[in-house]
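User: Can you predict the 3D structure of Branched-chain amino acid ABC transporter permease? Sequence below.
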Amino acid sequence: MNWLLLLEQILNGFQLGLLLFLLAAGLTLVFGIMDMVNLAHGSLYMMGAYFCATFTGWTGSFLIGALLTLPAVFILGVVVEIVALRTLYARDHLDQVMATFGLILFFNEATRLIWGPIGLAIPLPDFLNQTVEIIPGVPYPAFRLAIIITGFLVAGLLYFIVSRTKLGMLIRAGASNRDMIGALGINIRLLFTLVFGLGAALAGLAGLMAGPILSVEIGMGESILILTLVVIVIGGIGSIKGAFIAAILIGLIDTVGRSFLPEILDLILPSQTAATAAPAISSMMIYLLMALVLAIKPQGLFPPKGVGQ
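Assistant: Sure. Here are the predicted structure tokens for Branched-chain amino acid ABC transporter permease:
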């Protein structure tokens, strides 16, 4: 076995997992507190990438573009919540699914009108567009390493906010009993708006970090949304800790599987067949893991009493 390749793919797995966690954390907060099924969460991820590409082009700096993107996506999330989603809280989940699917179509067409059908690129500064030695003789792309570090820092900050602050206390209380905190005089509408804005900002952060690696294009949030939903189901709906652990598991299974399954299958199958089957089997393993978890623990690995537990 190529141990250097294994180390690189493990790091790539953490990178994918942390991007999935940023998406899943925002989505699980929204569902856990607001009981809102938001299929348009991937569109906020896409808008984060497009905003970053635009701001980077205007300022000539990726870092400034990223700093401008976060409040922009937060404001967009607040506007979406107030204008489109606030009236859906009392409706059933089917109505929410249909309405947020409509938002996906709206964002895709609005993006096509504003930016055009051709994908965009986000240029990186020189210090991020190079490799660094994580251990002697083992180079790794600096930007991917920055994604891993940023993901862990954001995960720690989010855990601190949810577990140790007054806002976090309200979030946990809202997840446990929305009617009670409303009866205690808490402005539940403002809390919902802030939570949705926070979830949008986390999705935008994932989008701006994925943009330089992937092509910034229309519909880029739809495929990753499926993996994000799998993360939430495996981890437990409403659980930040569950979302983190499930996202890392899925990231590792996907990247390590795609790298090493061809070699394993090559022992029993023709080379061309092995190369074709390996990515499909790697993707299937994610859904098999979800089915196994649901069979053993239908509420997920870490069913919360309140968000963050």
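The mean pLDDT is 88. The first strand starts at residue 131 and ends at 135.
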